Amino acid sequence: MYLLVVIFAVFSITIPDLFLSSITLQSVASSQAVVGILAVGALLPFVAGEFDITVGSNMALSVIIITSLSNSHPGVGVIPMCLIAVLVCGFVGLCNGLLVGRFGINSFIATLATSQVIVAVALKISNNQQVLASLPHAFMNLGQGRSLGLPNGVFVALGLALVVWYILQFTKLGRHLYAAGFNREAARLSGVRTRPVVIGSFVASGLIAGVAGVVYVGQVGTFSNSIGAPLLFPAFAAVFLGATQFNFRPNVWGTLLAIFTLALGVQGLQLSSSSGGFWITPLFNGVALVAAVMFSRQQGIRQAQRAEVSVDRAEDPVNRAEVPVDEKTTSVSPLTEDVAATTPDSEVSRR
Protein backbone atom coordinates (compact mmCIF):
# COMPACT_ATOMS: atom_id res chain seq x y z
CA MET A 1 0.00 0.00 0.00
CA TYR A 2 2.78 2.44 0.91
CA LEU A 3 4.69 1.57 -2.25
CA LEU A 4 1.61 2.25 -4.38
CA VAL A 5 1.14 5.66 -2.74
CA VAL A 6 4.80 6.54 -3.35
CA ILE A 7 4.56 5.46 -6.99
CA PHE A 8 1.48 7.60 -7.59
CA ALA A 9 2.99 10.60 -5.82
CA VAL A 10 6.37 10.49 -7.60
CA PHE A 11 5.17 9.91 -11.14
CA SER A 12 2.14 12.18 -10.81
CA ILE A 13 4.57 15.00 -10.05
CA THR A 14 7.36 14.14 -12.49
CA ILE A 15 5.40 12.97 -15.56
CA PRO A 16 1.75 13.87 -14.94
CA ASP A 17 0.73 14.06 -18.60
CA LEU A 18 1.98 10.57 -19.39
CA PHE A 19 1.40 8.75 -16.12
CA LEU A 20 -2.11 9.97 -15.28
CA SER A 21 -3.54 9.30 -18.72
CA SER A 22 -6.22 6.67 -19.27
CA ILE A 23 -4.01 5.01 -21.86
CA THR A 24 -1.42 4.20 -19.19
CA LEU A 25 -3.97 2.58 -16.87
CA GLN A 26 -5.52 0.60 -19.74
CA SER A 27 -2.07 -0.56 -20.84
CA VAL A 28 -1.27 -1.76 -17.33
CA ALA A 29 -4.60 -3.58 -17.04
CA SER A 30 -4.23 -5.23 -20.45
CA SER A 31 -0.68 -6.43 -19.88
CA GLN A 32 -1.35 -7.77 -16.37
CA ALA A 33 -4.59 -9.70 -16.92
CA VAL A 34 -2.80 -12.96 -17.72
CA VAL A 35 -0.28 -12.42 -14.90
CA GLY A 36 -3.17 -11.89 -12.50
CA ILE A 37 -4.80 -15.17 -13.53
CA LEU A 38 -1.50 -17.04 -13.14
CA ALA A 39 -0.95 -15.46 -9.72
CA VAL A 40 -4.40 -16.57 -8.53
CA GLY A 41 -3.58 -20.08 -9.72
CA ALA A 42 -0.20 -20.13 -7.99
CA LEU A 43 -1.82 -18.79 -4.81
CA LEU A 44 -3.81 -21.96 -4.07
CA PRO A 45 -0.85 -24.38 -3.66
CA PHE A 46 1.02 -21.59 -1.85
CA VAL A 47 -1.80 -21.32 0.69
CA ALA A 48 -1.44 -25.08 1.22
CA GLY A 49 2.29 -24.65 1.83
CA GLU A 50 3.51 -25.74 -1.61
CA PHE A 51 4.95 -24.23 -4.79
CA ASP A 52 3.66 -24.75 -8.32
CA ILE A 53 6.37 -23.58 -10.69
CA THR A 54 4.56 -25.08 -13.68
CA VAL A 55 1.98 -22.29 -13.98
CA GLY A 56 3.96 -20.49 -16.70
CA SER A 57 4.81 -23.56 -18.77
CA ASN A 58 1.30 -24.93 -18.22
CA MET A 59 -0.12 -21.73 -19.69
CA ALA A 60 2.18 -22.15 -22.70
CA LEU A 61 0.93 -25.73 -23.09
CA SER A 62 -2.65 -24.45 -23.17
CA VAL A 63 -1.72 -21.92 -25.87
CA ILE A 64 0.01 -24.46 -28.12
CA ILE A 65 -2.87 -26.93 -27.78
CA ILE A 66 -5.41 -24.31 -28.89
CA THR A 67 -3.27 -22.95 -31.73
CA SER A 68 -2.36 -26.39 -33.08
CA LEU A 69 -5.95 -27.68 -32.90
CA SER A 70 -7.21 -24.56 -34.65
CA ASN A 71 -4.91 -25.35 -37.59
CA SER A 72 -5.19 -29.14 -37.70
CA HIS A 73 -8.85 -29.61 -36.65
CA PRO A 74 -10.67 -26.33 -37.33
CA GLY A 75 -14.03 -28.10 -37.33
CA VAL A 76 -13.78 -28.96 -33.64
CA GLY A 77 -14.91 -25.51 -32.56
CA VAL A 78 -13.21 -22.94 -30.38
CA ILE A 79 -15.07 -23.83 -27.17
CA PRO A 80 -14.13 -27.56 -27.29
CA MET A 81 -10.54 -26.54 -28.10
CA CYS A 82 -10.40 -24.32 -25.03
CA LEU A 83 -11.99 -27.01 -22.84
CA ILE A 84 -9.47 -29.60 -24.05
CA ALA A 85 -6.58 -27.24 -23.29
CA VAL A 86 -7.88 -26.43 -19.80
CA LEU A 87 -8.50 -30.10 -18.98
CA VAL A 88 -5.02 -31.09 -20.15
CA CYS A 89 -3.55 -28.42 -17.88
CA GLY A 90 -5.71 -29.75 -15.05
CA PHE A 91 -4.29 -33.22 -15.70
CA VAL A 92 -0.78 -31.76 -15.40
CA GLY A 93 -1.84 -30.26 -12.08
CA LEU A 94 -3.10 -33.68 -10.98
CA CYS A 95 0.29 -35.20 -11.81
CA ASN A 96 1.99 -32.47 -9.77
CA GLY A 97 -0.38 -33.08 -6.89
CA LEU A 98 0.26 -36.83 -6.90
CA LEU A 99 4.03 -36.31 -6.97
CA VAL A 100 3.82 -33.98 -3.99
CA GLY A 101 0.87 -35.30 -2.00
CA ARG A 102 1.07 -39.02 -2.75
CA PHE A 103 4.79 -39.67 -3.21
CA GLY A 104 6.07 -36.95 -0.89
CA ILE A 105 8.42 -35.23 -3.36
CA ASN A 106 9.35 -31.66 -2.56
CA SER A 107 6.98 -29.41 -4.50
CA PHE A 108 9.73 -27.11 -5.75
CA ILE A 109 11.70 -30.03 -7.21
CA ALA A 110 8.63 -31.88 -8.52
CA THR A 111 7.11 -28.91 -10.32
CA LEU A 112 10.51 -27.76 -11.60
CA ALA A 113 10.96 -31.16 -13.25
CA THR A 114 7.39 -31.23 -14.54
CA SER A 115 7.77 -27.77 -16.05
CA GLN A 116 10.67 -29.02 -18.16
CA VAL A 117 8.58 -31.94 -19.40
CA ILE A 118 5.80 -29.51 -20.33
CA VAL A 119 8.25 -27.29 -22.20
CA ALA A 120 9.51 -30.32 -24.12
CA VAL A 121 5.95 -31.29 -25.08
CA ALA A 122 5.13 -27.75 -26.21
CA LEU A 123 8.32 -27.54 -28.29
CA LYS A 124 7.58 -30.92 -29.85
CA ILE A 125 4.05 -29.91 -30.83
CA SER A 126 5.20 -26.57 -32.25
CA ASN A 127 8.40 -27.94 -33.79
CA ASN A 128 10.14 -25.03 -32.01
CA GLN A 129 8.46 -22.52 -34.31
CA GLN A 130 5.99 -19.72 -33.92
CA VAL A 131 2.45 -20.98 -34.52
CA LEU A 132 -0.32 -18.65 -35.68
CA ALA A 133 -3.81 -19.67 -34.56
CA SER A 134 -6.71 -19.90 -36.99
CA LEU A 135 -9.47 -18.84 -34.62
CA PRO A 136 -12.84 -17.24 -35.39
CA HIS A 137 -12.93 -13.46 -35.54
CA ALA A 138 -15.62 -13.38 -32.87
CA PHE A 139 -13.31 -15.13 -30.41
CA MET A 140 -10.40 -12.81 -31.19
CA ASN A 141 -12.63 -9.74 -30.95
CA LEU A 142 -13.81 -10.95 -27.55
CA GLY A 143 -10.25 -11.55 -26.35
CA GLN A 144 -8.96 -8.21 -27.61
CA GLY A 145 -12.10 -6.22 -26.84
CA ARG A 146 -12.98 -3.95 -23.95
CA SER A 147 -15.94 -3.56 -21.64
CA LEU A 148 -16.51 -0.53 -19.41
CA GLY A 149 -13.18 0.82 -20.62
CA LEU A 150 -11.18 -2.22 -19.42
CA PRO A 151 -9.84 -5.22 -21.36
CA ASN A 152 -12.08 -8.26 -21.18
CA GLY A 153 -9.21 -10.31 -19.74
CA VAL A 154 -9.34 -8.17 -16.61
CA PHE A 155 -12.89 -9.32 -15.93
CA VAL A 156 -11.84 -12.95 -16.29
CA ALA A 157 -9.08 -12.35 -13.73
CA LEU A 158 -11.49 -10.59 -11.36
CA GLY A 159 -14.07 -13.35 -11.74
CA LEU A 160 -11.55 -16.06 -10.86
CA ALA A 161 -10.27 -13.92 -7.99
CA LEU A 162 -13.79 -13.62 -6.56
CA VAL A 163 -14.32 -17.38 -6.73
CA VAL A 164 -10.98 -18.17 -5.07
CA TRP A 165 -11.51 -15.46 -2.44
CA TYR A 166 -14.91 -16.87 -1.52
CA ILE A 167 -13.50 -20.41 -1.27
CA LEU A 168 -10.59 -19.35 0.92
CA GLN A 169 -12.58 -17.09 3.23
CA PHE A 170 -16.01 -18.65 3.58
CA THR A 171 -15.78 -22.39 2.95
CA LYS A 172 -14.56 -25.40 4.84
CA LEU A 173 -12.19 -26.20 1.98
CA GLY A 174 -10.54 -22.80 2.37
CA ARG A 175 -10.02 -23.33 6.09
CA HIS A 176 -8.49 -26.73 5.38
CA LEU A 177 -6.13 -25.19 2.81
CA TYR A 178 -4.89 -22.62 5.33
CA ALA A 179 -4.61 -25.28 8.03
CA ALA A 180 -2.55 -27.52 5.76
CA GLY A 181 -0.29 -24.61 4.93
CA PHE A 182 0.28 -23.45 8.51
CA ASN A 183 0.92 -26.86 10.10
CA ARG A 184 0.15 -29.93 8.02
CA GLU A 185 0.73 -32.49 10.75
CA ALA A 186 -1.46 -30.62 13.24
CA ALA A 187 -4.14 -30.28 10.56
CA ARG A 188 -3.97 -34.02 9.85
CA LEU A 189 -4.28 -34.86 13.53
CA SER A 190 -7.27 -32.52 13.72
CA GLY A 191 -9.09 -34.54 11.07
CA VAL A 192 -8.20 -32.58 7.93
CA ARG A 193 -7.58 -34.80 4.91
CA THR A 194 -4.41 -32.97 3.98
CA ARG A 195 -3.40 -35.18 1.07
CA PRO A 196 -6.56 -34.60 -1.02
CA VAL A 197 -6.43 -30.92 -0.11
CA VAL A 198 -2.87 -30.55 -1.43
CA ILE A 199 -3.60 -32.58 -4.57
CA GLY A 200 -6.74 -30.56 -5.23
CA SER A 201 -4.84 -27.28 -4.91
CA PHE A 202 -2.46 -28.38 -7.68
CA VAL A 203 -5.36 -29.48 -9.88
CA ALA A 204 -7.04 -26.09 -9.43
CA SER A 205 -3.75 -24.34 -10.18
CA GLY A 206 -3.42 -26.31 -13.43
CA LEU A 207 -6.97 -25.52 -14.49
CA ILE A 208 -6.49 -21.81 -13.82
CA ALA A 209 -3.21 -21.84 -15.77
CA GLY A 210 -5.16 -23.36 -18.65
CA VAL A 211 -7.65 -20.48 -18.44
CA ALA A 212 -4.73 -18.05 -18.56
CA GLY A 213 -3.65 -19.70 -21.80
CA VAL A 214 -7.15 -19.22 -23.24
CA VAL A 215 -7.08 -15.51 -22.35
CA TYR A 216 -3.57 -15.13 -23.77
CA VAL A 217 -4.37 -16.78 -27.10
CA GLY A 218 -7.47 -14.60 -27.34
CA GLN A 219 -5.33 -11.50 -26.89
CA VAL A 220 -2.33 -12.45 -29.04
CA GLY A 221 -3.41 -15.33 -31.26
CA THR A 222 0.04 -16.90 -31.60
CA PHE A 223 2.34 -19.29 -29.78
CA SER A 224 6.08 -18.81 -29.38
CA ASN A 225 8.63 -20.64 -27.28
CA SER A 226 9.27 -17.49 -25.23
CA ILE A 227 5.86 -17.30 -23.54
CA GLY A 228 5.11 -18.69 -20.11
CA ALA A 229 8.47 -18.56 -18.36
CA PRO A 230 8.78 -14.71 -18.26
CA LEU A 231 5.41 -14.55 -16.48
CA LEU A 232 6.44 -16.91 -13.69
CA PHE A 233 8.40 -14.42 -11.56
CA PRO A 234 5.81 -11.60 -11.72
CA ALA A 235 3.11 -14.06 -10.67
CA PHE A 236 5.07 -15.39 -7.69
CA ALA A 237 6.33 -11.93 -6.77
CA ALA A 238 2.70 -10.84 -6.55
CA VAL A 239 1.86 -13.84 -4.35
CA PHE A 240 4.76 -13.11 -1.97
CA LEU A 241 4.08 -9.37 -1.93
CA GLY A 242 0.37 -9.90 -1.46
CA ALA A 243 1.01 -12.02 1.63
CA THR A 244 2.39 -8.90 3.34
CA GLN A 245 -0.90 -7.01 2.92
CA PHE A 246 -4.19 -6.92 4.84
CA ASN A 247 -3.87 -10.04 7.04
CA PHE A 248 -0.20 -11.10 6.79
CA ARG A 249 -1.01 -14.38 5.08
CA PRO A 250 -1.47 -15.34 1.41
CA ASN A 251 -4.68 -13.74 0.15
CA VAL A 252 -6.35 -12.90 -3.15
CA TRP A 253 -6.78 -9.15 -2.90
CA GLY A 254 -3.27 -8.58 -1.64
CA THR A 255 -2.01 -10.54 -4.65
CA LEU A 256 -4.01 -8.43 -7.11
CA LEU A 257 -2.90 -5.25 -5.36
CA ALA A 258 0.72 -6.36 -5.68
CA ILE A 259 0.30 -7.04 -9.41
CA PHE A 260 -1.15 -3.58 -10.00
CA THR A 261 1.53 -1.92 -7.86
CA LEU A 262 4.45 -3.64 -9.60
CA ALA A 263 3.03 -3.05 -13.08
CA LEU A 264 2.30 0.61 -12.34
CA GLY A 265 5.82 1.14 -10.99
CA VAL A 266 7.38 -0.47 -14.06
CA GLN A 267 5.16 1.58 -16.36
CA GLY A 268 6.11 4.81 -14.63
CA LEU A 269 9.83 4.06 -14.83
CA GLN A 270 9.57 3.14 -18.50
CA LEU A 271 7.69 6.34 -19.30
CA SER A 272 10.23 8.47 -17.47
CA SER A 273 13.26 6.69 -18.95
CA SER A 274 14.87 8.33 -21.96
CA SER A 275 16.59 5.09 -23.02
CA GLY A 276 15.15 1.66 -23.61
CA GLY A 277 13.44 0.29 -20.53
CA PHE A 278 13.97 -3.40 -21.16
CA TRP A 279 15.99 -3.74 -17.94
CA ILE A 280 13.50 -1.90 -15.72
CA THR A 281 10.94 -4.69 -15.20
CA PRO A 282 13.20 -7.32 -13.59
CA LEU A 283 15.08 -4.68 -11.56
CA PHE A 284 11.96 -3.07 -10.13
CA ASN A 285 10.21 -6.37 -9.41
CA GLY A 286 13.24 -7.75 -7.56
CA VAL A 287 13.89 -4.61 -5.50
CA ALA A 288 10.21 -4.13 -4.66
CA LEU A 289 9.86 -7.74 -3.52
CA VAL A 290 12.88 -7.59 -1.22
CA ALA A 291 11.87 -4.20 0.19
CA ALA A 292 8.30 -5.29 0.87
CA VAL A 293 9.33 -8.53 2.58
CA MET A 294 11.86 -6.66 4.75
CA PHE A 295 9.22 -4.08 5.68
CA SER A 296 6.72 -6.82 6.51
CA ARG A 297 9.31 -8.61 8.63
CA GLN A 298 9.98 -5.45 10.63
CA GLN A 299 6.24 -4.99 11.17
CA GLY A 300 5.98 -8.58 12.38
CA ILE A 301 8.84 -8.06 14.82
CA ARG A 302 7.23 -4.92 16.22
CA GLN A 303 3.89 -6.66 16.63
CA ALA A 304 5.57 -9.58 18.41
CA GLN A 305 7.34 -7.16 20.75
CA ARG A 306 4.09 -5.37 21.55
CA ALA A 307 2.43 -8.71 22.22
CA GLU A 308 5.23 -9.69 24.61
CA VAL A 309 4.90 -6.40 26.47
CA SER A 310 1.14 -6.94 26.81
CA VAL A 311 1.68 -10.46 28.17
CA ASP A 312 4.28 -9.23 30.67
CA ARG A 313 1.91 -6.54 31.93
CA ALA A 314 -0.91 -9.04 32.28
CA GLU A 315 1.31 -11.37 34.31
CA ASP A 316 2.57 -8.58 36.57
CA PRO A 317 0.87 -8.98 40.02
CA VAL A 318 0.79 -5.20 40.46
CA ASN A 319 -1.31 -4.76 37.32
CA ARG A 320 -3.65 -7.61 37.99
CA ALA A 321 -7.19 -6.76 38.93
CA GLU A 322 -7.94 -7.51 42.56
CA VAL A 323 -10.51 -10.28 42.92
CA PRO A 324 -12.55 -10.35 46.18
CA VAL A 325 -11.68 -13.29 48.35
CA ASP A 326 -15.24 -14.45 48.74
CA GLU A 327 -15.79 -14.48 44.95
CA LYS A 328 -12.46 -16.15 44.38
CA THR A 329 -12.61 -18.92 46.95
CA THR A 330 -16.17 -19.55 47.95
CA SER A 331 -17.96 -19.76 44.63
CA VAL A 332 -19.36 -23.28 44.36
CA SER A 333 -21.25 -24.78 41.48
CA PRO A 334 -24.70 -26.32 42.17
CA LEU A 335 -23.32 -29.76 41.30
CA THR A 336 -20.61 -29.40 43.96
CA GLU A 337 -23.17 -28.31 46.55
CA ASP A 338 -25.26 -31.42 45.87
CA VAL A 339 -22.23 -33.69 46.20
CA ALA A 340 -21.16 -32.03 49.44
CA ALA A 341 -24.60 -32.40 50.96
CA THR A 342 -24.75 -36.14 50.36
CA THR A 343 -21.13 -37.13 50.94
CA PRO A 344 -19.25 -37.56 54.26
CA ASP A 345 -16.72 -34.86 55.09
CA SER A 346 -13.77 -37.22 54.79
CA GLU A 347 -14.88 -38.35 51.35
CA VAL A 348 -15.32 -34.77 50.16
CA SER A 349 -11.83 -33.90 51.39
CA ARG A 350 -10.34 -36.91 49.62
CA ARG A 351 -12.10 -36.02 46.40
SSE run: HHHHHHEHEEHHHHEHHHHHH
| Helix and strand composition category | mainly alpha
Shape: globular
What topology, given as strand order, has the largest sheet? 1-4
Helix content class: over 70%
Beta-strand residue percentage? under 5%
Quote the average pLDDT: 85
The biggest beta sheet, please? 2 strands, antiparallel
Q: List low-pLDDT spans.
A: 321-351
How many DSSP-defined strands?
A: 4
Alpha carbon gap, first and last residue: 60 Å
Verbal overview:
- The protein is an all-alpha fold.
- It contains 17 helices and four strands.
- The protein has helices at residues 2-14, 16-19, 22-47, 55-72, 78-102, 107-126, 137-144, 152-170, 172-182, 184-189, 194-219, 232-242, 252-272, 280-315, 325-329, 334-342, 345-350, and strands at 131-132, 146-147, 150-151, 222-223.
- The strands form two sheets. Strands 1-4 form a two-stranded antiparallel sheet.
- Strand 2 (146-147) and strand 3 form a beta hairpin.
- Helix 3 (22-47) packs across helix 9 (172-182), helix 3 (22-47) runs antiparallel to helix 11 and helix 5 runs antiparallel to helix 11 (194-219).
- The radius of gyration is 27 Å and the shape is globular.
- The chain starts with a helix and ends with a helix.
Q: Main attributes?
A:
single chain, 351 residues, mainly alpha, two-stranded antiparallel sheet, 4 strands, globular
Put the structure in a nutshell.
This protein has about 350 residues and is mainly α.
